[in-house]
Amino acid sequence: MLKHFDSLLELTEAFPDEQAAIDHFTAIRWKDGAFCPYCGSLTVYHFSDKRTHKCGDCHQRFSIKVGTIFEDTKLPLRKWFMAIWLITSHKKGVSSAQLARDIKITQKSAWFMLHRLRHAARTRSFNRPLKGEVEVDETFIGGKDKNKHANQRGGQRGPKGKTAVFGLLERGGEIRARKMESLAASEVQGEIARHVEPGANVMTDEYIGYRGLDERFNHHTVNHSAGEYVKNYFCHVNGIEGAWGLFKRQIYGIHHFVSTKHLDRYLDEMTWRYNRRESGEGERVNELLSLVAGRLTYRTLIA
């Protein structure tokens, strides 16, 4: 039976021991019935310890954690639940150093834990194209030019030492974002075509890479270089720029530094949380628990 909670205090009270946490996770993962994580068989036998199960077909023994990001973890599920609360409740996430202090584990374990949760939050597929009014914008992640050596400073779009990030926001809907190797017109327009319904109202700034969008969409632009940020009370990209501001505060204020290699994982975390901003605190915890299938090993993460 699922427990309900709306605060971190209620969460700790709802799961006073490890078995309570295991039972809650079991109810979520096996909501449609027990299955074997090895062969998929529905013939599963349960041992009296309530933690061990056996497949009736392949005869493998397993726990509810096998086949998930929790597989082989030495940390109790109660600590995982607290970590999930912190990463889903705090608008800018939580650093590995802070998480380590909060739940009394090493910083290395906290770093791996958070990356496994970001792995669970990744987008597997998109159910529908964005439609209506869609704001499109790009930004760059990296240190400020004034803090860099002269030979590392940029000056043009796509400054040295920074990574391009591209995003689309449906007004009143969801945001989608990813790291980009290039902001060439073919690349950005290809992303828009993949995610946006033809005929939608697409809002952008004056970047030359967006020219030609009016062949497939209702393209509207604002000229930021001329000090224009809203046109006709309708055309602007303020919504997605606000999301970029939130993401940069997460990177620079919470984590201080994020490698290009793992940047997409942090984007997955931010967009997952942003797209569920109207959900209740406990709802977000339970939803992420429903997405933990798929193991991520430390060797794979650092490869």
What does this structure look like?
This protein has 2 domains: 1-17 and 69-121 and 276-303, no CATH class; 133-258, 2-Layer Sandwich (Nucleotidyltransferase, domain 5), CATH 3.30.420. The radius of gyration is 22 Å and the shape is elongated. A hairpin with a 5-residue loop joins strand 2 and strand 3 (61-62). It is an alpha/beta fold and 303 residues long. The strands form 2 sheets. A 5-stranded mixed sheet has the order 6-5-4-7-8, sandwiched between helices. It has helices at 8-14, 18-29, 77-89, 96-103, 107-121, 185-195, 238-255, 263-274, 281-289, 298-302, and strands at 44-46, 53-55, 61-62, 133-141, 163-170, 175-180, 201-204, 218-221. The longest helix is centred in the last third of the chain and has 18 residues, at 238-255. Helix content is 36%, strand content 13%.
Query: What is the β-strand count?
Result: 8
Largest sheet: 5 strands, mixed
- The average pLDDT value, as a whole number, equals 93
Q: Which percent bin holds the helix content?
A: 25-40%
**Strand arrangement in the largest pleated sheet:** 6-5-4-7-8
**CATH architecture name of the largest domain:** 2-Layer Sandwich
Strand content: 5-15%
- The domain count comes to 2
- Ends apart, CA distance between termini: 39 Å
What is the fold-level CATH name, i.e. the topology of the largest domain? Nucleotidyltransferase, domain 5
Rg calculated over all Cα atoms? 22 Å
Series of secondary-structure elements, N-terminal to C-terminal? HHEEEHHHEEEHEEHHHH
Overall form:
elongated
Helix-and-strand structural type: alpha/beta
Q: Which blocks of ≥5 consecutive residues have pLDDT under 50?
A: none
Give the helix tally.
10
Question: What's the CATH class of the largest domain, please?
Answer: Alpha Beta
